[in-house]
Sequence to fold (98 residues):
Amino acid sequence: MNWQTTVFLLEVAIILGVIVVMLVQHFRNEHLSLRKRVLVNLHDGKAMDGVLYARRGRLLVLRNVTLLEPGANPVDVDGVVIVDRDRVDFVQASGADR
Fold:
């Protein structure tokens, strides 16, 4: 084996290592806060307190949701709530399972 082959194999190993690290980080982040109670704050000032059930691309799927609006009483929402991430200002994870 000459030095060019050795360098090529080293480059391939580095690239594969980087890909593996990126995949592990991606899947770890994908499952972060899933099935946890979160507070989803929306750009319009409303918030949704619920369990982050899934993430589907740009969509957040919430269950057991309570809608919180400034100046109004909290309202329990029936069924599943799907929120586009474009409407989300930020998400707070409480860490409590539900």
About this structure: Strands lie at 36-42, 47-56, 59-68, 75-84, 88-97. The radius of gyration is 21 Å.
